[in-house]
Records
---
Amino acid sequence: MQILKILFVVGSKALQNPMCSNWINGLSKAGHQVATVYWQSTQPSFQELTDWGITEPTTVFNFYQELPESTRNNLVKILGGRPDILFGWEGVPTLKPLQVVKSSFPEAKTVFLIDTYPNAPHFLSELLHNLRYGFASHLIDAYVFYSKAMRQLFSQQVFFAKKKLYLALIEPFLESAFDLGGTELPQELKLERIDNQPYIVFTGNAGSLWSNNYKDARDAVGSFLSRLAERGVHIFVNGNADLKNITKLHHYPAFSNTDLLAGRFAKYISQFDAHLIFYNELNNTIKRRVASGLSTRLAFALTSTCPIAISQTSQFVHEYWGEKPFGFMFKDLDDLVESLHDSQKLSLLRSNMEQVHRSFSFEAQSDRIHQLFKEVMAIHP
């Protein structure tokens, strides 16, 4: 494997996402020299970076509007030379900082990760995103997508993407984020069942369950969860959710990024009968998003051994299920309830998950990532 000097480029607020710090830590753990530049006017503190899951906070630098010479010098010093690859993470918010960094290191090849697509609330904002992707396509040598379906959809809308190298893989957590195996959970994290009804967990944006804001409407699934609870199903959601005094709707404990990346969250989730991952598909933009990938939600789900309950629109999962499906698709509330009461079906799916889920870890997929980098480095100017 060729050891590369990789400069990770992150848009505003993205560094707080555990998936982002996971990629930074993963590329470093894989043996590459890695530093990070973060589009923000103020430098995050050492403690903030640690809390966000960054294992080497001294390699992270903020910049805004321009990349100062002092920062460029520090980056070159940490990397041991000018970067070979610029790795842009997440999507549209990273395009502007990527352009600034590229002007400072024009010889570096660029790999751009599309975390979610389309990442927009409606058609007009989706169109704007596509235009921005198109205008920036000359900066990018290769893309990373989380399904072939996502790559196909993106390439239909952003024409120049069809001509670029790409890699499609399930968004990977490091092995350390996976179920802790035989490690005992502390008492406060043990799931206490009070009846024989199904117990499921929803790890989506629970703060927007009842939102009337159109931008947050994709996460406004409170009505569905309420009707599911009325059918006797226990549903656990993030602690910032308004439970509205709904019986069988519960909060799960708070977990930090460190908890997520160290496997404690996965161990907790594994106690449930199913992990519900879906969106409120209120328009065609959100339907296309669901059809091509639920990247972060699916990544969280794969770290546990809990079967996945996923909406029927999520066609991308067929790329990964193969002969050992690790979840089931549901078309409506009745269909979901029926599957949640099928203990034999859930037992088989859990067994499949236990056998296959670690094959999607960062380490298990790293050879494919290295191969993409090798091909990118072979591109002639």
---
Amino acid sequence: MAKKLGNDYRLWIDSSTPGTPAQILGQTTLKISRQAGQIDTATKDDFPYGTQAPGLKSLTIDAEIYPNLPDASGYTRLETVGAGSAPVLFQIRKGGSAGVAPADVVFAASMYVGNLDTDFSKNDVVKCTFQLTLAAAPTIDTLG
């Protein structure tokens, strides 16, 4: 039985030329979190247990990278977008660095960059962590 490997999934960001995504180099971790709000459906008749239904879902992507320069179209674009407030198209592609569109795109959505943190610790590589939040529903999502 084959295992899915995290190394095969890479995050891409739309470059300053729309429709031309670039891989963000130096990726170490990539985590997608899906959460659903709860709708209380309980009545007094349900005592002693309440019931809930799933509500609207939120989706975030948390990532860590060790910037691998020069990376003018990936990391630099992430920094630029992270400094502003406009959403940009992100993709996750399977197939490692060789992931091609559209065949290897397993996730695509317009997302905001939030919580862009950079760690410049002594005697260590520069680490950058960031969180992406949805600006619109994903147009491709075969991971969920």
---
Amino acid sequence: MSDTSSADILSRRKFLGAASLAGAGVALGAKPAMAEGAKPDPLITEVQDWNRYLGDGVQKTPYGVPSKFEKNVIRRDVSWLTASPESSVNFTPLHELDGIITPSGLCFERHHSGVAEINPADHRLMINGLVDKPLVFTMDDIKRMPRVNKIHFLECAANSGMEWRGAQLNGCQFTHGMVHNVMYTGVTLKTVLDEAGLKPNAKWLMLEGADAAAMNRSLPVEKALNDCLLAFGMNGEALRPEQGYPLRAVIPGWEGNLWVKWIRRIEAGDQPWQTREETSKYTDLLADGRSRKH
């Protein structure tokens, strides 16, 4: 039998009871001693305008827009970076965003000839070259094919380039903002190529855009058949014009320059095309004088 006295037990019970009451006081909102002299906050004690009046009706903004208090969360460009805004870039405000999905309206832009405005009813995708059956698809044709939804990040080859020769601008947005991560909706590139049928000697594809720059790049067939997409949707809605509406290529894990926007033609061949953007641009010279494509 314990030799602890009854007086000790009663003393412990009183202490525990007092501690419980103190905890209850905090839980019930008892004021800390340091807050005794604080003035009432009028944002709590007084009725605010948004409590007094009716707000806008449901159709005030048929396509929703951010709050006016978020007006500084926008893409930004650097006016002196390029000679023309039509062949330039703006930057995703990474420092203002949370989560892994970039809102469609904040995804950085990179254009070589400005944004192409294309009526989807007039857009065509041609498959030609080393194929069994050259084909032309409408957007309706493509949307009738089995579709997929995939989350991929896109990064410009020049991302972080503002620091290549030392920091030039202060901020994450301008230094690392040529990147975004979204959910794409579309069809696999393999599905479209299977419709045309690639010939055995078809080893490369040339992807060509419908913009004024006729942006084009060579792509290995092996990569095309693996995980590439032709996307018409982004984050649950249609692509934005600046992101390639109505159709763009998605080349996961490869530099953004290959993700041809407003894609209009895919030609199959037995060797790369050595286009402008993979010879004089977007390449590094090796020690022996050969070029290494990004």
---
Amino acid sequence: MAAELTEKYVASTIDHAILKPELTWDDVDRELDVAAEWGVFSVCVRPGDVAHAVERLAGTGVAVGTVIGFPHGTTSTAAKAAELRQAKADGAVEFDMVVNIGALRGGDDERVLADIRGVVAAAEGSVTKVILETSLLDDEQIARGARLTEQGGATFVKTSTGFAGGGATVPHVELMKANVTTTQVKASGGVRGLEAAAAMIAAGATRLGTSASATILGELRAREAGEATTGAEDSSSY
């Protein structure tokens, strides 16, 4: 599958994650510059970094997204909506909310659905993604979470925060994809190289959350350069 991917296409699927709590603004700036250099689709930054990221990335074509209720999903719907509205005012255009994990595990679908709908309503048409935190869920809960995400009107259902001891897996991406019709799937957590990225795309993910954008795209660039060199050598033999 990796052989069919191009650097341009894979870059267009990447939300470059800049979310670690220990990052200084100098660290954030370095990661924002990586995102701009490689031309990824967007960055996903901490809520307090949104305005700065928007300013630094102005003119690069890289969108700015952020997280809502991160990483545990236990804040109230009203708090999540308020956090989203502030981030939107600061310039964010995409919003990755963490589902109420305990409610999902406990089978309280009405509460989960109301939480998703409240955040989607606050987004007022902007792209929303619902993080299920698949490492804490069984297959039935993942499938049900994906269906609730679609019912709630979110744009994407997403695997993981990357902060719960597990990340995206191919079976989980496939399971989520099988349980939605129009909602897209974002694979996030542990996508650290080209092989993993290609596997997630093959499984049905149309967006990747990763802090390893340079590694993934660097592998593709090197492969494409090698193919170009091989092609030139082959043509010169005729």
